[in-house]
Structures are given as C-alpha cells and as structure tokens.
Amino acid sequence: MSFPLVRMRRLRRSPALRRLVAETTLSPSDFVYPLFVVEGSGVVEEVPSMPGVNRYSIDTLGEECRRVQELGIPAVILFGIPEEKDALGHGAYDPQGIIPRAVKAAKKAAPGLVVICDVCMCEYTDHGHCGVLDGRYVHNDATLELLAKAAVAYARAGCDMVAPSDMMDGRVLEIREALDEAGFENLPIMSYAAKYCSAFYGPFRDAAESAPSFGDRRQYQMDPANALEALRECELDIAEGADIIMVKPALPYLDIITRVRQEFDLPVAAYNVSGEYAMIKAAAAQGWLDHDRVMMESLLSIKRAGADMILTYFAKDAARLLREEA
To answer: The domain at 25-325 falls in which architecture?
Structure first.
C-alpha cells in the first residue's frame, strides 16, 4: 500500500500519540551516575571542564548520593582521587583507601543505592597509566594481581559491583577468582569490555587527575578503527565471568553498541563519557544548541542503539526532566 492510504504522519500528530508508539523510551532507572571522590572535608568542587559535575569529599558524598537516589537513579559509580600517588598505585587497593571509605559513606547515606566501584590504577599511579610499568611499557600480568586486590578491598567495604576499566588481558578472570576466594562469589562484575583509546576522555582526566605522564594508552585500550575486535573482547570477558559488558565511549561508537547487543545476551552498558558531556554543555552555554533537547536526543540514541544502561554525567539533569514530563 502507498499514499494516500498510508500516511506516516498520522501517529505523530500529538505528544500523547508519539508517546504511545515510541519504540524507545528513557527512564531514570536507565542511568548510572559517576561520582568523583577526593580527600579533605567539606569539599564540593566543580570540575572546570565539566560544568555541573563536582568532586566530593567523603563527608559531602553521602548527601549527593541521597539526591541521586531521590531522583530515581538506581546506581552510582565511584572514582577516587587519593592524596598521594606512587608507581604501584597503592591507594587503589588500600583497605583504608579513599574508595573503601567512600563506599561505606555512600551505603550508609543511601542504603538502597547500587554502589559500583571502578577498578583501575590510573587515578592512583604517579605516572597516570593503568598498570605496573616495565620501563615505558605497561606490564599486563603484573597488573592483574593489583586489580584483583583492589576489587576485593572494595567488596569488603560493601560495594554492590566492581567495574574493571583498565583493559588488561585476563583481568576479569583474575578478579572473579579473587572475589570467589574471598567469599564474594555473588558480587557481579561490569567489564569495560570494549574500551577505546579515545580523545573524548579529556575532561575525565582533569576530574580524576589521571592523565598519563608520558605517551598514551594505545598499547592497551582499543584502536578506534576496529569493530570485530570489540566483539572478541566482549566474548573473552564473558567467558572469564563478566556479568555486564560495557562499550566506552558511547556516541562515537553507537555501531559497536548495536553489534554487541545483537551478538550477546548479557546486559549491555554504555558510557556517555566526559567529552560527550562537555561538548554539549559548552555549545549550550554559547547558545548554539538547545541543551535539554540535545541531551535527551543523545541519551535516547544510546538506548536505541541497544544499551540497557547508560553511565552518564547527565543522569541528574535527565532524571529531573523526565520527572517533569511524566
């Protein structure tokens, strides 16, 4: 059949009709909100390159977690910035380090909130790379033990999930075995399975003070040119025990999200990263874009591509807007 019997515009005539036939919907329950935690007291410090995103000290973190939970956002992911850094990133796996203490504060303030801990070395090493150095090379196998120690420390502090983001080969299995041996066989792992070496991470590195002191991370993060490799990465992490697989970044890699969703039946996460956030904020501040519409269109595109959950700095803004529209 063709025009005039078929008129595609019939179901676009009103907001109610459009909602009725929408193929993809967004909810605050789709979001995970990233939080940066620093030492000190009374700290609520905006990240200059990420307007609206703050660093929190542990004593102010709890109130922010309560606000997140009240907006209907089910989860946060914590990134720690220690007071001191060293070559082996001891702060990452110190049982009294910043993240174990932050986990306890978050769980006390918002008991129903899912608290996820990023597992990586870059925020804790004085060289800014994601593992142990052998000269100027990041040594894969020497890093695994430290990542596993960090995951166990966070589990003992009471976190609900760990999320290794380092991109070392074999780290999911190492973490899974360490968690199981420590009695945390029911603690899930969300693997940054397809994490690309992307220029979109710049503002995050300002926030987490984690820029590498030399070179870049191309020797362990994925080449943006590759798609089939992402499927292999996901397949390997699933075989090692990952419960959720993630694609990072999101917007420049929507095709990867779709391919991963089509290939695997695990929950798929996507990280709407700092550069994606900062671009929209900067353009909106200049009056070049409608902030709310572009924000929601971007998040909707990530969900439409196949993501079951979205890690995003827009989580609070988007949740407020969805609440107003409900």
So the answer is: Alpha-Beta Barrel (3.20)
